Amino acid sequence: MSFTMNSLTMNSLTMRFTMNSLTMNRFTMRFTMNSLTMNRFTMRFTMKSLTMNSFNTNSLTMNSLTMNSFTRRFTMNSFNMNSFNMNSFNMNSFNMNSFNMNSFTMNSFNMNSFNMNSFNMNSFNMNSFNINSFNMNRFNMNSFNMNSFNMNSFNMNSFNMNSFNMNSFNMNSFTMNSFNMNSFNMNSFNMSSFNMNSFNMNSFNMNSCTRRFTMYSFNMNSFIMNSFKMNSFNMNSFNMNSFNMNSFNMNSFNMNSFNMNSFNMNSFNMNSLTMNSFIMNSFNMNSFNMNSFNMNSFNMNSFNTNSLTMNSFNMNSLTMISLTMNSFNMNRFNMNSFTMKMFTMNSFNMNSFNMNSFIMNSFNMNSFNMNSFNMNSFTMNSFNMNSFNMNSFIMNSFIMNSFNMNSFTMNSFTRNSFYMNSFNMNSFNMNSFNMNSFNMNSFTMNSFNMNSFNMNSFTMNSFTMNSFKMNSFNMNSFNMNSFNMNSFNMNSFTRRFTMYSFNMNSFIMNSFKMNRFNMNSFNMNSFTMNSFNMNSFNMNSFNVNSFNMNSFNMNSLTMNSFIMNSFNMNSFNMNSFNMNSFNMNSFNMNSLTMNSFNMNSLTMISLTMNSFNKNSFNMNSFTMKMFTMNSFNMNSFTMNSFIMNSFNMNSFNMNSFIMNSFIMNSFNMNSFTMNSFTMNSFNMNSFNMNSFNMNSFNMNSFNMNSFTMNSFNMNSFNMNSFTMNSFTMNSFNMNSFNMNSFNMNSFNMNSFTLNRLTMNSFNMNSFNMNMFTMNSFTMNRLTMNSFNMNSFNMKMFTMNSSYTIRSLYFRTTLVFAMCFTSW
Question: Which residues are CB-neighbours of 726 under 8 A, at least 6 positions away?
């Protein structure tokens, strides 16, 4: 059949069409029409079944179709077609004022193959599209093939559908070579309910998708889908200049299962995405499963959203085998507010995450609000990222009521470089953070670079973690120019921490500033680390106005080896340090090694601690090549009680200790108690201090059961001046003092000044020393105003072999008053 018509004009057509069945084996047609104009078309259409073996047309060409209104009711029991073939569809313009349908009902739609070479339309224009109800039981298509779809502009004022219902949608393959649309414009999309039982597609293939998209408002009451299945999704490139939507509103999204074997896309490119408001009341999904996600490049210039609001997000399980992305690039991300009441996920499982580079110029968010985040388990085998680059991160406020996770497991985390110019956040607020277990095999990062970190206030009510396990942490370099925080507030911190090895080549920070640090309680059962290795730690200035902690509690700290080549800090400044109680059961370290420690000045106005309690301190060896500090300044040190059961160290080794000035106004301690102090050897080449100044030293009681040291070795002790106004101790009690050998080459002090020394009682059961050796003792001036002791008691004094002082020199000795009430 060949159909040709120049123009058809009709004012109104009213028709009732009823057919029981239509069967056609083959239909072939060429259709050409210049223009069709119809003012009004009204129809009631009823057909039981339509069966067609093949429909073939070479070309359908129409210059313009214009219709004012279309109204009908459509009912069909079944539509069956083996193949639909069309070479080209061409239309210049489609214009319709309104499309209105009360109901569309079809039981089954079956088509084996749909084939079209090209679809071309210049403009599609419709004022309103309205359907009350759309009902289809089954849609089945084996293959859909289209070479190219081209449309210049799509314009629709409003789309309205009350209900969409489909039982099953099945398609074996969808293939489209290119989709091109210059502009898509829709004022409003409204749907009351969308219901689909199952969606099944074997493969979706598209070479390129290009368009501009604009929608004023999207409104849907409920979306319900039981299962979504797709074997493979393949797209070469997706390109969009701009996506604009004023408002997105959905009451509820419900899906039982989402299953996809593979998602593959070469490139995703978008210039700008803009959305004024996104609102969803509830999102519910039982399971999300994807075997592999692959994308070569993601590029977006700007993402802009005013507000995103979601009441609840619920997902039972998310499973993904691998996610691979070569590059992610975004210039600007802007969001005014993000609000979510509740996020719940039972399990997150991913085998591998791979990304070559992540680049974002700026991230801007005014406020982030979430009531609760809940996840049972997070599992990832490997995370790999070559480079992360961000110029600026800005967030005004972050608020989360509770974060809850049962277990976090990751085998390996690898990132080559992390770069951020500035991180800025006004306030961070979280009520509670709860995690049962955190497990990571290895964390590797080559370089971390940040110019400035700025946060006004950080507030967390409680942080709880049952166990933290990491096999190895590796970082080549950490660089930060400035860290600034006004206040840090935490009520309670609880966890168990285990790390096998920590390795860092260099840590560099120019300045660290914090106004207030406040924590009610820190509780840790055990801290275990096999080895800590750092080549260099460098910081220009550390400034904290006030540090406040009510209680610090730790059962055991265990570390096999601590190695640091150099520690360098220009200035450390703290106004006040306040801690009510410090409690630790045991401290165990095999070896601590530091090549050099350098600090220009340490300044602290006041340190206050109510009680310090430690059961045992154990260290095999402490080694430091050089300790250098220009000035140490502290106004007051106050501690109520210091309790340690046992202190054990095999060897202490230091090449040189250098300090220019030590200044402390007052030292106050109520009681010092230690059961046993044991050290095998103490070795220091030189101790050098220019001046030591303390106004007052006050201690109520000093109690030690036993002091044991095998050997004390020091080459030279040098101090210019020692000045103390008053030294007061109520009682000194020691059961036994044991030292095998004391060796010092030279002791040099220019002046020793003590205004007043007061001691109520001195009690020692036994003093034992095998050998005392000193090559030279030199003191220029010793000045003491008053020495007062109520009682001195020593049961036994023993020096086994010898004591040797080769030279003893005093220039002046001034003792104004010495008083003993009993000896």
Answer: 695, 696, 697, 698, 755, 756, 757, 758
